[in-house]
């Protein structure tokens, strides 16, 4: 990794920043993520073990919303901004999440029910902060935008986010299985908090399955969107807590008015027994995943 050298003034504090006068670009070997026009690199401050993530080429809206969303324990922390020599756009200096993405975490770890429920509560807590405290709609919730740091959820990436009162929130974007199907029905559909709630429902199912939704489906992305628009949803995993199943099924209802608000999601999560995951109905069973047919069926400007 390369070293952070100079300082950056943000608010009233001076923060370490990349030594731009000596650096034309960030080394490709340090890249840890990319999507759309942005790339994320990892770096450390000179002569210390402090590590930061540098997200390159963000626009003013993303920088503003990242700063606005700051100061919640389950949201990746903003540390400053910087600009590389010869480049017009700013880069964000962010907290580094040592556990990688939720997607990788779920695939590589065996997670007990109590931790599945804890992760669900932490994701919902971050969304509650955005919706009710900051007036932000995330707009692109999926497991690559949910990070893990020291075992704790860190929601990230506000490149597709909007303020609730924004007039510029009708552009469809995201990863198909997590997108509000209203977008597939109406390309000019206006994103709302209920779009995030739909994504939460799919994420909650994924916490229990530890696999990507609709991985067993073959065909292109347009075909998958067609099936989701016409009611396709994943089946509950066997022995999942029935209250948790009912919650995520309400979250992914087709009609936004039938989806709960985030404070209702929090309330229902808090009412679920942490110790009892074996509350299931006979109808609940895991749909088999056929191996080797296809990878995640999603096209995204951020995945």
How would you explain this protein's 3D organization?
With 303 residues, the chain is an alpha+beta fold. It has 2 domains: 9-95, Phosphorylase Kinase, domain 1 (2-Layer Sandwich), CATH 3.30.200; 102-271, Transferase(Phosphotransferase), domain 1, CATH 1.10.510. It is 29% helix and 19% strand. The chain has 8 helices and 11 strands. The chain has helices spanning 60-68, 102-108, 113-133, 182-185, 193-209, 221-229, 242-251, 262-271; strands at 3-10, 13-18, 31-35, 38-45, 51-58, 78-82, 90-95, 136-137, 146-149, 152-155, 162-163. A hairpin with a 2-residue loop joins strand 9 and strand 10. The protein is globular, with a radius of gyration of 20 Å. It starts with a strand and ends in a 32-residue tail after the last helix. It comes from Rhizophagus irregularis (strain DAOM 181602 / DAOM 197198 / MUCL 43194) (Arbuscular mycorrhizal fungus). Residues 273-303 are annotated as: Disordered. Residues 26-274 form the Protein kinase domain. GO terms for molecular function: ATP binding; protein serine/threonine kinase activity. This is Protein kinase domain-containing protein.
């Amino acid at each position: 990794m390369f070293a952070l050298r100079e300082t950056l003034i943000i608010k009233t504090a001076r923060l370490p920043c990349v030594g731009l006068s000596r650096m034309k670009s960030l080394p490709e070997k340090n890249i840890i993520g990319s999507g759309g026009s942005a790339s994320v690199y990892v770096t450390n401050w000179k002569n210390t073990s402090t590590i930061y993530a540098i997200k390159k080429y963000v626009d003013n809206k993303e920088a503003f919303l990242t700063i606005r969303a700051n100061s919640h324990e389950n949201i990746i922390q903003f540390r400053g901004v910087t600009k590389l020599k010869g480049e017009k756009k700013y880069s964000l200096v962010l907290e580094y999440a040592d556990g990688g993405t939720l997607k990788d975490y779920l695939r590589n770890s065996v997670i007990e029910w109590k931790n599945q429920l804890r992760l669900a509560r932490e994701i919902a807590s971050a969304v509650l902060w955005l919706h009710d405290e900051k007036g932000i709609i995330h707009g692109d919730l999926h497991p690559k935008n949910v990070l893990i740091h020291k075992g704790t959820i860190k929601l990230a990436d506000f490149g597709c986010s909007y303020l609730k009162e924004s007039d510029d929130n009708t552009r469809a974007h995201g990863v198909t299985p997590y997108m509000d199907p209203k977008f597939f029905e109406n390309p000019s559909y206006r994103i709302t908090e209920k779009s995030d709630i739909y994504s939460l429902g799919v994420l909650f199912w994924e916490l229990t399955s530890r696999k990507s939704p609709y991985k067993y489906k073959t065909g292109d992305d347009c075909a998958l969107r067609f099936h989701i628009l016409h009611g396709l949803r994943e089946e509950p995993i066997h022995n999942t807590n029935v209250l948790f199943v009912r919650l995520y099924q309400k979250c992914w209802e087709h009609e936004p008015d039938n989806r709960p608000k985030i404070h209702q999601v929090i309330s229902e999560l808090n009412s679920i027994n942490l110790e009892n995951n074996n509350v299931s109905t006979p109808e609940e069973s895991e749909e088999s995943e056929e191996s080797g047919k296809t990878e995640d069926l999603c096209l995204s400007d951020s995945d």
